Amino acid sequence: MSGDRLPRDRDVWRIAAPMILSNVSVPLLGMVDTGVVGHLESPVYLGAVAIGATIFSFLYTGMNFLRMGTTGIAAQCFGANDNDGLRVSLGQALIVALFIAATVMLLQWPVGQLAMNLFGADGDLKTYALEYFSIRIWSAPGTLANFVMIGWFLGLQNARVPLLIFLTINLTNIALDLLFVIALGMKVDGVALASVIAEYTGLAVALYFASQQLRRHAGRWPVAKLVRIREYAAFFAINANLFIRTMALMFTIAFVTAQGARMGGLILAANAILQQFQNLTAFGLDGFAHAAEALVGKAIGEQRREALERAVKLSLKWSLIFASGFSAFYFLGGPFLISALTDLPEVRETTLRYLPWMIVSPLISVWSFLYDGVYVGATRAREMRNIMVFSAFAVFLPAWYLLQPLGNDGLWLAFMLFLGSRGIGMHFGYRKYVSQRF
């Protein structure tokens, strides 16, 4: 997109479409992991992989600030034609990612033992879960570096390389799952090893295309900004706030799961299925949030208010269209999806009872998803943190406390209020930012 014209629909789709495809590949990998160990002779292997995968999902979700923070910084450098800044944004993020990965690997024994205690794993389940954990932990440098690379390419308006990275990782992982477990007879060690090799294969692809990208944006590497800790002040300010924001989000989601469990096995199972609906919505709408990140960051780097507001308007338009589509899909096809996910009559009936929350959820959550992208592109991490923390602890928790007599309906209503609070707060924060910045 040239610097003298406004964003267009095709600019949104050029970024959103590859990211939506990338997101779709993630649950596919989970299904294959489950399938290969689910056909082994003992269910303990499936349980071990489920525990191990949950541990890494928690760890890596908490580190996703590396992706978000890098996108915003790189996008603004790209918009300002600051080629040296592009190198600093990449170099600093990679150095921090590798430092975090090294720390996690050094602490793997206490982290693994703590996780086993939290899950209550013992006997063979603990043995195999720890085996999976001790192998997959070696993927940490590759995984966190890939977060950085994906964020950096998005900042440069390039979503095709992140798609290629995702596909390389997931298809390699699937192929090696089949090779190690089905062909070679390995167990959980094969699934874990496949993940490790896949992450580094994806990183090799990312580094190759990064070298090509840097050649097209000639500049120098300001070494001082990579080796002096004080030069990381802006990076840490953004990413520390994003980390706190992510922790507040994870707390809210975990709280919903925990409260559902306290209501009994049927509610827990129903809410687990409904959460898959919510995740599917997020996978679809996140593509437009990624587009907003890149386009907003570039517009701010160019100091063009009209381009900024146009980018937000277009991204919001397509987000709303897709959100309406998700709501219609859940209204018409929700019962079929529920039947496909479980054949237990009681669970189906219970899930159908609460399906209306998933029908309205896309139209409520779309605002917070889209504005997450806007704020990332604008590097307004402190405001993201404040709104998320307020929504989690001043809206969600009090609402749940007051709505407890409604049972699971009260729980989902509190969650909808949480999503709505985020969207409303971020909308007014965005309008204030635009009026003050330009």
Q: What does the model show?
A:
- With 438 residues, this protein is mainly alpha-helical.
- It folds into 2 domains: 40-227, no CATH class; 232-438, no CATH class.
- It is built from 16 helices and no strands.
- It starts with 8 loop residues before the first helix and ends with a helix.
- The mean pLDDT is 90.
How many strands? 0
Question: Mean pLDDT score, rounded?
Answer: 90
**Level of helix content?**
over 70%
Radius of gyration: 22 Å
The fraction of residues in strands falls at under 5%
Q: Give the class from helix and strand content and strand pairing.
A: mainly alpha
Number of helices: 16
Largest sheet: none
Unreliable segments of 5+ consecutive residues: none
Number of domain units: 2
- Assembly state: single chain
Would you list the SSEs in sequence order as H and E? HHHHHHHHHHHHHHHH
Cα distance spanning the termini: 22 Å
The dominant shape is: globular
